[in-house]
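re: ur msg from earlier - yeah i can do the S-adenosyl-L-homocysteine complex, just paste it... oh wait u already did. ok heres what im feeding in:
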Amino acid sequence: MSEKIARGTVRTTRSDVLLASAGGRGVLCGIYDEDAADTYHDLMQDADGTAEAREFADRIRPESGPVLELAAGTGRLTFPLLELGHTVTALELSAAMLDILRKRLENEPPDVRDRCTVVQGDMTAFALDERFETVVVSSGSVNVLDDAGRPGLYASVRENLAPGGRFLLAVAVAEAVKSESTERQQELSGLSGRRYVLHARMSPVEEIHEITIYPADETADPFVVCTNRIRLLKVDQVVRELEQAGFDVVSRTPFASAGQGSEDVLLLEALPRVAGS
Ligand code: SAH
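and the outut:
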């Protein structure tokens, strides 16, 4: 399976400018792709999903069995869920992310490692052997999917949920409608000490949030430009889509621990509608 299928490598207004001046040193990649793995790991290996995992775990019945986590990435949420005692199947599309996740698992004690199953798969089209009482998607991961991808996610989740199961999804939602696009830029330090620039452009008109991350050192060779594009979703739209896909959204609550300042995150709890009700 190619990881370019679901996402493609996104060009941003910023990456076009940067690559034009970097010439032969320039490399463009999606933030979850292999060429970006060094940058992603440098910036993210410290990212702690414990608070976020707790918010999910508060909604997972203790007696319910294994949890299916979609778009698990390098396990920011997976490890805290395992630490809280859950058994987790972590599904992720990107081979580069999975490599890091698997290496991290190898460093865990056997009782933790043995409670985690890692699966390469596309969250918009998957069928696992097991049915799950709980399916979780971390904040923002739904937002990487476009309008064509989300229905596949909802349908796949329905198929893989056990009767009475629940789908917990954290969704980054657009703030109060602003008509003008906004840009901001900040410098970040990686764990290695390398410096990066993060450039973000929010365009409410296009309903997108573009991210571009690149070395602060303009002479870097290779000059790796990582991009990502998330859709700014309206909560009512996601709720409507879930209902059309046969779910009842039984709660929507602000997701306290997530959000990167530029958008709000809501936690939705959706139950498959039982036929005839
Ligand atoms: N849940 C992790 C990762 C979030 S980043 C965390 O909270 O840190 C979003 C992740 O979605 C990336 O790892 C990306 O590779 C993955 N992804 C994107 N499209 C996907 C798809 N169609 N199926 C599965 N994973 C996907």
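cool cool. The first helix runs from residue 4 to 7. ping me if u need the other ligands too
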